[in-house]
Amino acid sequence: MAPQRTALHWVAIEPGTPDAWRFEEYEVAAPAPGEVTIRVRAAGVNPADAKHVASARPGVEFPAPIGYEVSGVVTAVGADTEIVTGPVAVGDEVIAFRVNGGYATELTVPAQKVLRKPAALTHAEAANLLLAGSTASAMLHAVDARPGETLLLHAASGSVGASVLQQAAARGIRIIGTASPARLDAVRRFGGVPVPYGEGLAGRIRAAMEEAGVETIDAALDAAGTAEATETSLALVGDRRRIVTIAAPRHAAEHGFQASSGSDPETARFRDAVRIRLVEAAERGDLVVPMAREYPLSQAPEALRFLAEGHPGGKIALVP
Hints:
alpha/beta; Quinone Oxidoreductase, Chain A, domain 1; Rossmann fold; 2 domains; six-stranded parallel beta sheet; 18 strands
């Protein structure tokens, strides 16, 4: 019998904030057929990590390991196992997405959640590629974005916004993106037309449209979730079926436009389907992941506090 492997991970013993989580030792399961074990080099940090265990929710069992996406090195492979991108061996660099318990030094996961790591990205960047990237893809898909169109994007300087901008540019789609005055350059970096949010937003967007020679906004993507974002999208987009939010489901229900969530089975299937395309784009250098900070894994609560302050300026990674 193989010796038992131990590692460290963050776990929520009961519903609550990150301050109540525990960083403790646990036994890493040996990989069965269809599974691989990964030594984590970086874990992505996302708002959903804390929201998932903030309260008692259907389908969440406590104690609950934390974290959805990682980048690392394969340390063990189950019999007759391949990952999404093909054969895999001990020592391969990989990423994993929609896993359970990524805030760890090592973990065993289903191979169907694992892909090769894009060589062009660091582990910290790769650990933050797929959640934001697949969310961005799903938003563009939801509004049926087409080459030659102009879209409005709220929170364009955030992590999802940065991926939307890059994916849209690759498809010949123009983006007018709202952001704070301090973050307008982040929108310009990826080809967006930046507009500062705040009072009078719709008027500034119309002015930007006129300057760019754009007559209509074909669709709107909301990653901000504010009343201002909802009101502006409704004012500028005639077809409510072409408005989508990932941050204001109540506004969507009230006003009759779309809300996109990874918990929706159809959306989850779409996000899984685009993983290889996102990896390939990153490998070509066509999709980058702007980073803000790295924290030691032991400081996960501090990393989430920094994220919750808003406008981190890029993604955050936890490194062992």
